[in-house]
Amino acid sequence: MNEQADVVVLGLGHTGGYIMRALSEAGLDVVGIGPRPVVGERGHSGDIDDAMTPGAGYLLSASRPAAPFPLGAGWAAGRSRTVEGVRGRATGDRVDRIAAGLLAVKRGRFVHGKGRLTGPYQVSVGERTLHARRGVVLATGAQPRLPAVRGLSGTPYWTDENALAAMELPASLIVLGTSGLGVETAQLFARFRCAVTVVERQPRLLSWEEPEASTLTERALLRDGVTVLTSTGASEVAYDGTGFTVHLDGGTEPLRAERMLVTTERQADLTGLGLDTAGLAASSAVVPTDGQMRAGRGLWAVGDVTGRGLSSDVALYQAEVAVRDILGWPGPDTDYRKLARLVYTDPEIAAVGLTERQARNQRLRVRTSLLPINSSDRRGPQGRRRDGFVKLVEDADRGVLVGATSAGPAGAEVLYALNVAVHAEMSVERLRHAVPACVPFHRTVEAALGGLC
Hints:
Residues 340-438 form the Pyridine nucleotide-disulphide oxidoreductase dimerisation domain. Keywords: FAD, Flavoprotein. The protein has 12 helices and 22 strands. Residues 39-92 and 375-383 have low confidence and may be disordered. Strands 1, 2, 3, 4, 5, 6, 16 and 17 form an 8-stranded mixed β-sheet that branches. 25% of the residues lie in helices and 25% in strands. It has helices at residues 14-25, 47-51, 57-60, 92-103, 160-164, 180-191, 211-223, 312-326, 356-361, 411-424, 428-432, 440-450; strands at 2-10, 30-34, 109-112, 116-119, 122-125, 128-138, 143-144, 172-176, 195-199, 227-229, 234-239, 244-248, 255-257, 259-262, 266-267, 294-296, 299-301, 340-343, 348-353, 366-372, 389-395, 400-408.
């Protein structure tokens, strides 16, 4: 069966859904192809970030559930679902309706299955062949890359999707590896009185961020009852039908928990996508793109398949550039040097640009300023503690900010102004004379700028 469309999107994750929404709202006929639509990804869907903010006070209140309980369609805000997660088997038009609802796509068509390129502007899925008038977007995402731990691959470990779609809260959980998602999940499960243990090979949590951010995050997890084991690796994992046993390096006492979440690196699986039919190497580990996310004639690629960052923040940024290019709108090429990094714990960790260590490794003459948020003994919105800090990294020779970290109850919001300053390479002198919003967190930024001297 041959069909026509303006654009075909391969992949129904958050990024594919965003592209479908944007293009269909611009009036294009868009078809999305994938085995299942998945929402609830960290950082954009609202599950983890909304759950950790004051608006979801039931997670942050002092009265927490005392025992495991059914969580409905997902453990966070009840929005992490797949087509298979809806009661009954959905087929045909009902798949379209469910997928449209989950991805918030008002206009667009969906094809359930695994699609592959079969030529320029052409995708096949099952017995159907779709011809894209404008082109095809590859947004097929990535899968976890398991660490080399004996016995792990044969166990029913959780990935981020499993954790978000869990129907019941486990009594105990081991988190192996501490990506941003791993730390967020550990804290959120702990706030539902799940006994959580974090196992991290690196000497500190969030090892890619400033050490002050690692210390703040670990202190917050400990306060919520999480056991944190850094400089610790797992050597073997076993599952007996009721729980996991994790043997640690060094022969220390094994850990035992009902569930285990693996939050290590992810990698794209490009096998079977038919890349060779579009002029690309079939054995490629990633899809190379130019600054407008073009991978070839009538072909764009976004997200994990590009090998750039492997995060939802980067994927959404790429998707915005690709949508603009597909619509023929002018705009700058992608620039990955100054992307913001967000971890939605409580307190939030938000950063942009270089850390102090990275700046020094680049042989910059560095000035830094570190200032705690006003009086951590006081309480912020909804009674939350005002734990946090602002750290600025300046290239002293040029007098401009090259990096910033905003950690606290409103870390991501406070970062916005710093993000603009780093991207625009605004002078520190000019920033000092800007008038900040009259709120304590922004006043902390003003004071931190004064400390760069």
